[in-house]
Write a structure and sequence with these properties.
Layout lengths: L3 H4 L21 H16 L24 E5 L3 E6 L2 E6 L12 E7 L2 E6 L2 E6 L2 E6 L7 E6 L5 E5 L2 E6 L2 E4 L7 E6 L5 E5 L2 E6 L2 E7 L13 E6 L5 E5 L2 E6 L2 E6 L7 E5 L2 E5 L6 E4 L5 E3 L8 E6 L5 E5 L4 E4 L5 E4 L11 E6 L15 E10 L2 E2 L4 E5 L17 E4 L5 E7 L4 E6 L2 E5 L12 E8 L3 E5 L4 E4 L10
Parallel strand pairs: 29-36, 35-38
Antiparallel strand pairs: 1-2, 1-28, 2-3, 4-5, 5-6, 6-7, 8-9, 9-10, 10-11, 12-13, 13-14, 14-15, 16-17, 17-18, 18-19, 20-21, 21-22, 22-23, 24-25, 25-26, 26-27, 29-30, 29-33, 31-32, 31-34, 34-35, 37-38
């Protein structure tokens, strides 16, 4: 569950990959003209900065061994996948106004996973959690990265900071719409964002490219996603649509075909990552040519990682976890097929080449979710009830567009008992033509065959009705405790 403000509106997340036409549709003449104009301007230095003259170096290649994959299960704990098994270590969080901590990003400090949560950074080592604090006065942090020297970097719309020697230091740079923090082998730090890309050269932040001044009328404007140094020493700056290659201050731009490139890492001489439009596995060769691996294997995911074997790990809305091999082979884990992953995967990281053997999927385990629907204490029988990860505007029901949707109805005593796969669920119920959403209550981290009492929807406790959206919100803080 997210910040309460997110419960009061339907939030649509948009990744700025440019206004590309749907796959298979020819670009308009205007679109082609704008693409060529952007490429010409970038190569001519119209938007260049002093950072293009900084001497960069690739991170030295090292032999990578097999290692575990880590998945943070929101509000539950850390799942570890290695040697053909999956295990879960629970790290319960104290609730703040009914809302527990949730994790936005995860990275590796050596072999230890480090998490960026909504209330700070923490590390898991030897089964123990260590809080690492957070930079002061920096809200809305959502990006985490760890430099080769172990320095922890975090960033968001309001700024960037790093932690070294146990102390947090805020950087004197602001990068709205920050997409990624990356490093090279010479101690440089790169910040990629919607409009600008910066490099930390010594103590100075220098712009590599600044496209904020680009004419708003362009149908295509770059949205910079990542900056990496290729094994041959070239500096690569990537948007969904284009790859800038910089060598000794000289820029060449390669147009990337659909589905474009979002984020990834070099595996040998190939940049391996996920695409912008489909979350599928894509490769960029050293000549800049992009290839989509098994084009039909397009994934609707919300957390991804690339391991040293070139596999793409994706947490999915339709499938709990999918691992796409370098050859496009997919290993899929439906909800409940790995009980250790009994919730929402908020973040993924993989050590080295990843597990040398993946666990086998078992028959999907289920749990039972129970609750009540009442009006003024009177049970309401035969009421439609829906469970899903994140209810939204009824279209036609609040969970209709959620792949995790499970339905049921109340019995003569106003109770519901719904069998559901091992995922995270919230509950809504339809009473007299209105949908009621029980806020700040969810069932997650369930064991197979367990029962979770999610709470009671008491319609007289509805507040902040969003009549336009057809939703009424119910909070039981004054009587019934939150399950967290």
């Amino acid at each position: 569950m997210r910040h309460p403000a997110l419960l009061l509106a339907l939030v649509v997340l948009f990744t700025g990959c440019g206004k590309k036409p749907p796959s298979g549709r020819e670009e308009s003449p205007e679109r082609k003209r704008d693409r060529e104009a952007v490429r010409t301007a970038l190569e001519a230095g119209t938007y260049r900065g002093a950072g293009q003259d900084v001497a960069v170096a690739p991170i030295p290649a090292k032999a990578e061994a097999a290692g575990p994959a880590y998945a943070w299960i929101d509000h539950v704990g850390l799942a570890t996948i290695e040697k053909g098994t999956a295990t879960l270590a629970r790290f319960p969080e104290p609730a703040t106004q009914g809302l527990p901590l949730y994790v936005k990003a995860m990275a590796l400090d050596g072999a230890n996973p480090v998490m960026l949560g909504d209330r700070g950074v923490f590390e898991i080592s030897a089964g123990q959690r260590t809080d690492l604090g957070a930079p002061e006065d920096l809200l809305g942090l959502d990006t985490l990265a760890i430099a080769p020297d172990g320095t922890i970097w975090v960033g968001g719309d309001r700024g960037v900071a790093h932690r070294k020697g146990g102390e947090w230091t805020r950087e004197k740079v602001e990068v709205p719409d920050l997409e990624s923090i990356d490093f090279d082998g010479a101690g440089h730090v790169f910040l990629s964002s919607r409009n600008d890309v910066f490099v930390l050269d010594g103590a100075a932040w220098k712009p590599i490219v600044r496209t904020k001044v680009m004419t708003e009328g362009h149908s295509m404007r770059p949205w910079w996603h990542q900056t990496v140094v290729a094994p041959n020493g070239e500096l690569w700056v990537l948007s969904c649509d284009q790859l800038m290659r910089i060598v000794a201050g000289k820029v060449t731009v390669v147009d990337l075909p659909e589905p474009g490139f979002s984020h990834g890492r070099f595996v040998g001489d190939t940049l391996v990552g996920k695409s912008c439009l489909t979350n599928s596995l894509v490769h960029i060769a050293m000549d800049g040519a992009l290839t989509e691996v098994v084009p039909k294997a397009r994934l609707e995911g919300y957390s991804q990682a690339i391991d040293g074997s070139g596999r793409l790990w994706v947490a999915l809305r339709t499938m709990m976890l999918t691992v796409v091999g370098a050859d496009g082979t997919r290993t899929e884990y439906p909800a409940g097929s790995l009980p250790a992953l009994g919730g929402d995967i908020a973040a993924l990281v993989v050590t080295g080449k990843g597990p040398d053997a993946l666990p086998a999927a078992t028959p999907s385990a289920r749990a039972t979710i129970t609750g009540f629907v009442l009006t003024g204490g009177t049970p309401l029988p035969r009421i439609s009830v829906e469970l899903c990860k994140q209810p939204g505007t009824p279209a036609p029901t609040p969970c209709a567009k959620d792949a995790s949707r499970v339905t049921g109805e109340t019995d003569d005593k106003g109770a519901f008992h719904i069998s559901a796969p091992l995922r995270s669920f919230q509950v809504v119920a339809k009473v007299d033509g209105h949908w009621y959403w029980l806020m700040n209550h969810e069932c997650t981290g369930l064991d197979p065959n367990a029962t979770c009492a999610i709470g009671t929807i008491e319609t007289t406790k509805a507040m902040n009705p969003n009549e336009a959206a057809g939703l009424r919100f119910v909070s039981n803080h004054d009587g019934e405790p939150s399950p967290f």
